[in-house]
Write a structure and sequence with these properties.
Trna Endonuclease, Chain: A, domain 1; Restrct_endonuc-II-like; single chain; tRNA_endonuc-like_dom_sf; 16 helices; Restriction endonuclease type IV Mrr domain-containing protein; three-stranded antiparallel β-sheet; alpha/beta; elongated; five-stranded mixed β-sheet
């Protein structure tokens, strides 16, 4: 069986078991914040029975990987909102963060378990993960009917994976035997810490020279997908909270109650719902920049500006003119959407039509929000 220290050295091995978050509760119950999704740095430290400083140092060394697995840092208005809606419900007297707060999903906590060396709890989680994987590989499987595999269309043949694992186990056993031969009297009387260090060095040496260079190539193709999923998860949590608070008032009332940032996230979600890809919320540019960027299903460049205004106000031709220059000249947009919670004036609609800008006025926005698709995105 592969030594648990292998997870410390190979990011690809960690990625292969990143979904097995049930391992956390198998070893020790993980307490969550009232939102049922996150834990704080202090809660991570308590779970692994280490200091917060240890967790913070780990975050600095592996921030990118932890972020890919769901860790994020709240600041500014987002932090104030989280303190009000979640930390205020925490049963303990939690010290209120001043400027930022790191949050971990269960997946991110599992990632910490696979990176943290000096924790008995983390070591037990790693051991459980590899034991479960070994049991899964040893269990007989009934082949599913279907067409045979096509070259380049599926995962590597399972026999290749099994052979690779068997070869790795053999190399580790050989290296351990060599270490034992150097100490004819055996390991009796040798400090336990030294024995552990020798074992870990053996595993790291074998994996580092052979398996890691091959496996790390696979992880590159997954990073962008994970980053996008983490971003989508954060936006969906925020949107569910807002819509839940205002659902009694009706669909447009919920949109009217959103602030500018919440409205941008909701429009980004509508774009993704209609098949757009690589959709990101840029925001923070006021009236002079794009709020949402992405690509339509057929690959056209999408640029969106969002205007969360009161229903009694209106979008003027000046608003449209400013957006046209920005979308076409600065962002080279193929599809330009100006989305507003207010109606457009007649001149604004005419100008948008002349310059092939889709004016998503209040009426069209309501239909889009209720499930209709924008033709320009099809």
């Amino acid at each position: 069986m592969v030594h648990e220290g292998a997870l410390l050295e190979s990011q690809t091995l960690r990625a292969s078991v990143a979904e097995r978050t049930e391992a956390l509760d198998k070893v020790k119950l993980l307490s969550l914040l009232p939102d049922g999704l996150h834990v704080t740095t202090r809660m991570v430290a308590d779970y692994f029975e280490v200091t917060e400083r240890t967790v913070n140092r780990l975050m600095q060394r592996h921030r990118e990987e932890l972020t890919e697995n769901g860790m994020r840092t709240l600041r500014g208005s987002e932090l104030e909102l989280f303190k009000r809606d979640t930390l205020s419900l925490f049963p303990e007297s939690y010290p209120q963060p001043r400027s930022n707060l790191a949050l971990f999903t269960r997946r991110a906590v599992l990632n910490v378990a696979m990176l943290l060396r000096d924790s008995d709890v983390a070591r037990r989680v790693r051991t459980y993960l590899l034991d479960a994987e070994q049991t899964g590989r040893a269990a007989p499987r009934t082949p599913r009917p279907g067409p045979g595999p096509r070259a380049g269309s599926g995962p590597v043949d399972e026999s290749v994976v099994r052979s690779l694992i068997a070869w790795l186990d053999e190399r580790i056993a050989q290296s351990v035997a060599e270490q034992h031969a150097r100490h004819p009297s055996g390991f009796q009387g040798v400090d336990e810490t030294l024995v552990r260090r020798l074992a870990e060095e053996t595993v790291r040496g074998v994996i580092g020279r052979t398996i890691v260079p091959l496996l790390n190539q696979a992880i590159e193709s997954q990073r962008e997908v994970r980053r996008q999923l983490a971003e989508n998860e954060a936006e969906m949590i925020q949107l569910r909270r807002v819509l839940r608070e205002h659902e009694a008032a009706g669909s447009m009332a919920a949109l009217d109650a959103m602030n500018g940032r919440e409205f941008e996230r909701h429009v980004a979600w509508l774009c993704r719902r209609d098949g757009c890809a690589q959709v990101t919320v840029t925001g923070g540019h006021g009236d002079a920049g794009a709020d949402v960027l992405g690509y339509t299903a057929d690959g056209r460049r999408l640029v969106v500006q969002c205007k969360a205004r009161t229903p009694s106000s209106s979008i003027t031709s000046g608003d449209v003119q400013g957006f046209i220059g920005m979308a076409r000249l600065e962002y080279k947009a193929d599809v330009a959407l100006l989305v507003a919670t207010a109606p457009f004036t007649r001149d604004a609609l005419l100008m948008a039509a002349r310059h092939e800008v889709t004016a998503v006025h209040r009426g069209l926005l309501e239909a889009w929000n209720n499930g209709a698709k924008l033709r320009v995105l099809e």
